[in-house]
Design goal:
heterodimer; A: alpha/beta; five-stranded parallel beta sheet; 35 helices; B: six-stranded mixed beta sheet
Chain lengths: ~1100, ~425
Amino acid sequence: MSAFQFTRIHVRRAPGCSRGWELRNLSAGINVIIGPNASGKTTTARAITSVIWPEKAIAHTETEAEFCLGGKPWHAELYGRDAFYQLNGVPEKRPALPAVEALGERCNVGLHDLLRTEDKEIAQSILLEAAGNYNLDAAGQALGFDPNPRFGRSSRDDFGAAKNEVHRITRELDDLGSESARLGELDAALHYARAADERAGILAQAIEKRRSLEAYETTAASLKRFDARLAALAGTELAQLEERQRFFEARCASRDEAQRGIDNALEQIAACRLPKTGVAAADIASLKMRLEDLRRADAAVEQLQGAKAAAQAREQTALDALGRIGDTAAPDLPALNDLAAFVREWTEVGLDKVATQRWRDWLGNVAPAVDLDELRTAEVVLEQWLRTPGPVRLTVPPWLKWGMLVLAVLLAFGSAAIALSVSPFAWLGLLPAAALLIMAFVRPAERPEPLPPTLPGRVSPPRQWECSSVQRRLDEIRIDLHRANLAAERQRERAAVEPAWNEILERKGRLEAKRRELSETLGCEIDPALFLLFIENVRIFRDARRTSAEVQAQLGTATAGRTEVLAAISSALSSFAIDASTDFSQAHGRIEDLVSRDQKWRGAHQEKDAREREHRNFGQQCDSLREEILTILTRANVADAAALDLLLRNFEGFAKAREEERTLRGLRENAEAFFRQHSEFEKRAVADLEREHEATVDKAKTIEELVAEKTGIETKIGEAKRRTALENAVAKREAAKRALLEERDSKLNALSGHLVLEDLRRKMGELSMPAVFEQARNLFARFTNHTWELIQPDHDHNFRARDSAAGGSSRPLAALSSGTRVQLLLALRAASVANDERGFDIKLPLLLDETLANSDDRRAQDIIAAIAELARDGRQIFYFTAQADEVAKWRAFFVREDVPHGIFDLSIARGEAAVSDFEHVSSPSALVVPSPDGLSYDEYGALLGAPPLDPREEVGAVHLWHVCEDAATLHGLLKLGLERWGQFEDALRHGGEKRFGDTAARLRANAQVIEELCACWRHGRGRPLVREALTEAGISGVFIDRVWEIARSLECDAAKLMQTLDRGEVSRLRSETREQLRQFCVEHGYISTDAPLSSEAIRYRLRSVASDLGLGADRADFILAKISV
Amino acid sequence: MRVICTADLHLGRISSRLINDVRAADFTARAAWERVVELALNEKADAVAVAGDVIDASGNYFEACGPLETGLKRLSSAGIETLFVAGNHDWNSLPRFCEQFAGLRLRLLGRGGRWERQTIERGDERLHICGWSFPAARHTENPLLAYRHESDGVPVLGLLHADVNQMGSPYGPCSSAELLAAGPSLWLLGHVHRTNQWQDAAGIAFYPGSPQALDPGEVGGHGAWCVDFHRAGKPNLRHCPLSTIRYEDLVVNVDGRNDEVAVEKALHEGLERMVQECAKEPGPLELLSCRVHLQGRTALHAHLALHGWDHVDELRRESNGITAVVERIAVNTAPVLDLPNLARGNSPPALLARFLLELERGENLPMIETARERLGTSYQQMRIEGDGEPAGEAAPRQQAPDLEETRQLMRRQGYRLLAQLIEPVS
């Protein structure tokens, strides 16, 4: 089988990581990847997996990798999910590998789960592992597969009820059909009854007509007994007569009253003393207009007088300010304008000079203290000296030195004693003692320090020619070099400013000369500031003088006009014998009096006309009433009211008789017509007719019953025709039946699924499981050094293991140690993976999470041994951990066992300052997670030192304190070593889903809201600016320090920086450079062109997401409050 | 001579799968009959011909009488004659109605299963109309066997309620070839609710379809036909849409659409396209009810297979007064999988992938026969009273699955299981 072995992995770009990292020289065996939390372990694992299965890569990641496959070198580059492969440097298709769906998850071994298995039913876990960790039962259950599908009671009941309803309505309609058949019989009976009814009606009419004839004859006879004159009267004539006489007297009185009114009006007209035609309205209007003209003329005169006084006052003030300079002493205005232009130029040049002077001062004029070339040479020389190999010192540790001394002394005394007592040859023993003394105290030869080099002229050498001193001096030189560069740059800038400065000085000199010239011309020293004031006062004086003259002329014109208007008013009033007026108020009073008299005159005339009309009207009415009284008396043929009263006393009886006769006359004509039509009744008496009528009415009595019965049936039919009960019931029945049919379809689908699953189980039992068990058995035996052997299970899946150490007796798996059980499960996982790899003749890497920290030593060793065995089989292993003691266990193992391996520190790989020193990290047992007892959630967060939520970071780096909601849950997660959301999510991916259950769902929902919050916050905000970006954007060395200082003070917000620069905070920074920087920031994402979302928009968005996830709005608000928007 | 042709009114029925926003009364067979009458008046037709199944069932007699009587009175007043034949649904109720309202200008042809001919004359134009009515609810003999054609140069319109090309049917079975060879220049047929037509040089036989679509199976446009007969040549047929509802099958391919937004967009686009197409056709159409069939490979398959599409109610489009809704979404998608590659292992997904590949290749698998038997047994246990009745052509299933259906069921459930194993959805 060819092994898929990574040799290099380079995470170039990943969300939430500011820079990439690279792991080189990866081992073909076990690679232990170490790194603290949030250091990129998960990202590295994901990168490894995505090289094998690009489908698993996440967006915005870039990965580069090198790997061996079948002994051939491959190179891969991934941009998101776009993968490009090369074989031997030539582009090549992706190598044929097992589908991600089959192995993508299983190559990531969640050893957490394997360890927890000790608490579970081991057999179940074994079966699950042997099935490739695919839970067929759970899948079938989730999909609703059902081996025995049956209808639900409710749908069958619904259908039954709907059918019954249709039957009920149908029965009702069938009954109605039977009833409708009787309608014919009813029609016949009704026809016969209606004929009788019609005959009875005619008989009743004949009886009535006969009686009408008899009544008429009686009434006509009684009418003939009354006075014949009454026939011409209506009975109301007496009342009419009295009323007319009353009206006649009243109208006569009114006519006399009108005559008196006419006389009074004539008297008032005479008292007004106006001509016969009165005063014309045009004359009144003309007088009022002239009066208004007079008022305006008065006001104009008054205003001009005020203006004249004001102009005279300004004139006087200006004269006072000029010191009584006469008109002729003031220079003419054009000359003053030239002088003013001179003064303005003087001021501008002065301001320009001050600004340029400040800039020159800021640039300074300090020449580099030391020559730049000399500094550069000195830097090179010192660097070379430092790179030269230093002296070698062979030193003897103190304990060894003193040990050798003691040994030498003992040897010397011993030799001396033997020499003196036994043999003189023993003096030779002094030689080794001397040698020991020399070795201990005589310094061996040292390699000499390199010779001090020569530094250029003015560069002073280090204090001593030793490494630290030289390094310090080198740093100083580098700082000097930087300063010298900066000074040189500023000198260049200052030199560029000099021509402008000189030009300003030159203009200043020219203006000074001109000032002196003007002073001589004017005969006094010109101070530009005072001279401006002088010119202004001259202007004021001249304006005031001119204004005064103009106002005087206008005043004369206005006075003449006023006199003219006054004369016209006096002339008009004289025609009404009114005296002339001298001023406005007099004229006004006289005109008002004239108007008043005219109004009275007009009122009296109107009164007189009205009274005259009344007088004529009342006179005519008196004549008419007299005529009416005469007419009434003539019609009654009487002389006066008394005779009329006597005649009308019998009128009531007469009128009654006459009315009755009229009524009966109509009935008589009607009856005669009836009998002409029905001649059979003409000669018959009333009694005869009444007898026949009674008999016929009896026959017609059944009509109502028949009609009622017929109407009842017809109503029912009519209602049935109008209603849609059966239509609706049939529709319901069809819907219920359809639901039942659909349910049956669904049930058949569920059974079909079950049959597929059953078939799959059968195939698993026949094909897959035996092979997996066989391979797992072999691996397990090797993992346990053939101490244990897995025995094939019986039909009830009772697993046992044979213990060779105990004479080959079999034991239940419960008797195995926890480490051995993990080895067994690991063997099953590896066998299951290998079973799927077989079709591709390949061996894929396995990725494992930290697990050993929570294990006792024995179990840890068992697990490590098992993993090492897999590596020896040629499978590359990646083991990720954040725990120092796990690294120690691995190190210890690698010392003992010859397994190809590598240990990689992600912190070093990422080039971060804080290098993880796993050799010296205290053991995890020393890590204490504080208990939240008695603390609120906020207090607990403070105790943990949870960092605030940074919306710039990816959600994976968010501390779990922000994601959790209660301290107990958080404490539990922290105890498991899960501190960040990314770690927890990774744990969930590796089988933690079941472990955390509802908590996982809740936290995932919270994390999604936080992720949404961060995304919303980042919308419209650029990424933080870095100094390198300023350089890349073209900010020169002269400005870079100042610009970067401002940027830092603005929290590296590029948008705010640009606003500051636009305000000119950095003087002399050219606008082109600013625009260049702005464009760079936009193009590289430091400035966003979108508007940031408002807090309300974010709140709405978060609430919406929270609602979709089943969280309340309060939770969204709580999370929103974590950052300031 | 102008005749308005229709059939299968089924007075007493109402279109199924309506939404709450519409007025149900507009979707009844009664309302459709009123629109047929209106059409005849507007077109100044000489006659209206109805090929059976006017009344849905004898129990509906009174409820059907009202609107039928009203409409026929209007037609009679305008001098338009109406000719019926009785179908299997109204074999007894339609003759009763015609007797009761004999005063109107209507005629039932072929009473008691005996061919009958009626001639209509308008000026110098003549048209023979011959018809045959169902003598009972079922009639297993071919009604054409008793037909005798007499040619006198006058165009002949045949009215027949029959099951064409369904040999052995209990509803007057006959073949289209027999119809075309029988003699009449046009056969107006009843029984099948969807429009269908056969023709040759001799004549035309056609099912006009019901004027109101009543069931999701009755897809396509529904209405009546305006037929102009000429002395010589074939009659001219013109379809007049009258149905207020239209059922359609909408196939939406979601190949490569791997998120809900993209799928939803495809659904909206499909619905929009469909409603725009329907809006082009004149008529009283108010509601377009689409049964969507999602097809293609998508990463959403696992979710769709388990939960279906959650937002059916939100899928709605309106155009020219037509509201288009989705009645149901049938998920026939497949996961985005490289089945041949996946099938190379021995894991459950690999075994399942192999099984699906075998199904796709159409291999004869022993388990299919076994599964068919199990499904047949289960079907019998869940038998519903009234199975097999022509209650609606879109009823989900009227018989136990055969081998091909069993294969499709296995395939669909196999894909669901595969998706669930690979990407468990809870």
